[in-house]
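check this:
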Amino acid sequence: MFILFFLINGSLIAQSLDTIKTNDSLINIKLSNDFKFKPKQLIIPSVLIAYGFIGMESDWVKNINKEISEEVTENIDRRLTIDDFSQYAPALSVYALGAIGIKGKNNLKDKSIILATSFIIMSITVTALKSIAKIERPDGYSNNSFPSGHTANAFMGAEFLYQEYKVTSVWYGVSGYVVAAATGAFRIYNNRHWLTDVVSGAGIGIVSAKAGYWLLPVVNKLFTSSSNPNKRSAFIPYYNGNQVGFGYVSSF
């Protein structure tokens, strides 16, 4: 609740500070470009993901993981569960901002398709890597530490928030990324993940959100009937770190 409130109010302040004047044609050009694949967009998430894979084999990186984990958890008496909720805040803020009249880049249908596509890509990737890597968690509870699903979910939402509102104000995205970074930090604080898990999770989340935008034109056609243009469909994703699911809604 507090994090969502922070995002909404922070963005309202940013909107009042950053008044962007542009014509419709310029906006249309920017919007169409967002759906085009650009290799340079993969640089940052690829570096983040690669760091995690290197950490699985590098003794030097493993030692850094252990040192950070020991330093962070040394004086911790109890676990905080804020990360179980903050992982959803950036993505939910897109809908909350729209509900209070602050319009994003896309309409409700397209936003839902982008989010559902991003979520499916992210959850499949995270689940597959967890089952393959079998890295033990810092607390020794299980062997599915790599990558961090909570962090991937949070950064997917942060990139989603940034893409939807970057034309209005960059501070929307900044707020989302702050919350996502805090989510990753709390995963380490709660002794649930190594640094490499969190870093790679961030990369997976970012690239998953970007893929959601790249695939929108294709997915849009699958859920829009040419014989009935008023028919609309959407997925409602769900992920709690261990379980994956989604609902399907269709209107006629």
